[in-house]
Amino acid sequence: MKIKVFKIRLPQEYLHKDQKALDDFLSSHEIIKTETAFVQDENYWSVVLYFEEFKTTGTSVKESKVIKYSAENDVLSADEVKILDALKLWRSEKAREQSLPTYFIASNKELMSVAKYKPAKKEELLEIKGFGKHKIENYGEEILEILESI
Question: Residue 112 belongs to what domain range?
Fold first, then answer.
């Protein structure tokens, strides 16, 4: 297991760049655990990620694991917008409960992909880009319950 620390500075000139660096890292590593703390004196979030590198070997390539569903710039139907709004509300509440930034729970693109793909089982969540074992263990049941209720 490896550890990486990110500094998410809140002033507007840094925020987008810092968040993009974190998002890029999250999309290319298997996150095992996260810890966050707000550093009030300097006005930034400290993000500690415990992770494993995706292992690639020269002898074996698993195409099916690489290609995952992602709603890039898809237009959502009215029903999908309702699902997305419910997922965003759930994410905000979950982030507040856990004292985490909302993008730690799930990014907007991940929630949009869930709204478009509409998985019915935890295994189907694995087919959506951004959803790994850790995220599904922590939030999968709740996401599926939201999908069932709408």
Answer: 78-149
